[in-house]
Amino acid sequence: MIKVTRLNGKSFTVNGLFIETVESLPDTTITFTSGKKIVVSEREEEIIQAIIAFYRMINVLGLRDDMGDNDDEK
Q1: Residue 52: helix, strand or coil by DSSP?
Q2: What is the pTM of this model?
Q3: CB 63 within 8 A of CB 55
Q4: Beta partners for 5?
Q5: pLDDT value at residue 73
Q6: Which H helix or E strand runs over 46?
Q7: Pfam families from the xrefs (predicted)?
Q8: In Å, what is the CA distance from 24 to each residue of 12, 15, 39, 67, 69?
Q9: Residues spanned by the domain of 43
């Protein structure tokens, strides 16, 4: 889950797996796979970094931080 803040200051979390696009229009707008859009106060880059951290946490695409490079073992 990714914590975001509406423009009115209220925080909530969204499921990063359902984010389709993140755009600066100029406010940061997140579009979900359902077509729903929300506008948040975080910058686009902050959202992208939060998505990457979330993917690492749940091990999507093998992006976990706690796994060392095993290139030496090949």
Answers
A1: helix
A2: 0.79
A3: yes
A4: 11
A5: 46
A6: helix 44-57
A7: FlbD (PF06289)
A8: 19, 20, 9, 33, 35
A9: 2-69
Indicate the range of 5-9, 28-32, 37-41, 61-65 predicted with least confidence: 61-65
**Angle of CA points 55, 61, 66, to nearest 5°:** 65
Residue 33 lies in a domain: yes
Q: Dump the DSSP string for 53-74.
A: HHHHHTTGGG--TTSPP-GGG-
By the 8 A CB rule, do 22 and 29 touch? yes
Q: What is the pLDDT of residues 36-73, one digit of tens each?
A: 999 999 999 999 999 999 998 998 877 566 655 555 44
Contact assessment for residue 51 and residue 2, using Cβ atoms and an 8 Å cutoff: yes
The number of domains in the chain is 1
Between 25 and 13, residue with greater pLDDT? 13
Residue type, 6: R
Give the per-residue pLDDT at 60. 82
